[in-house]
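During the reporting period the student researcher (J.K.) took over the structure-prediction task from the postdoctoral fellow and processed the backlog of single-chain submissions. One of the processed entries is reproduced below for the supervisory committee.
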Amino acid sequence: MTSKGEALLLDFWASPFCARAKISLYEKGVNFECREEDLFGGKSDLLLRSNPIHQKVPVLLHNGKPILESTNIVTYIDAVWPSPPLIPSSPYEAAQASQIWRSQGDEQEVAKKNFIEILQQLEEALGNKKFFAGDVFGFVDILLIPITSWFLTYEKIGSFKVEDRVPKLSAWIKRTKQRETVAKALPDPEKVYEFIVGMRKQLGIE
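J.K. obtained the following structure tokens:
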């Protein structure tokens, strides 16, 4: 395991944004502590101190210093623990990766039609490549794969199948989930669905 001081991740099991940080740390072989937050029953004093404005996870505490927001955390991890690299070294490839990421928007905020259109755009960007950067698992893969844990919920609520609309992207999802670093970071889609159903009932949304 790689060590450059203490690393503590404030986590929530169902959050795709927390999973991004976990995958990155696993990919780098970093020895870190993962601390589950009770986001609905009472956030910890450490979370409130570390992220006083937004009070959200993930928060990575590296030697006691907080790094906020999942994309910033992935970028920070790649800079502090440079091997293996997650962000492409060439400026052009890095720009391409950023463009793919920005174009996909926030899946959880869009309607079903827009969601499917975004998936189709991602499939076009992926093409016939193994991963978004080619043969190497990297930045865009890490940012996108955790969100797929919520796809089962989208499918059941929206009455459609992702695989029917974007077969190449679906193949990428299956391939990527076979990586050990990904498999142990992602929540069970069925548990995510049960969690969302419970939340919808609490909010009076059926």
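The committee noted the following: Residues 60 and 66 are 6 Å apart (CA to CA).
J.K. will present the remaining backlog at the next meeting.
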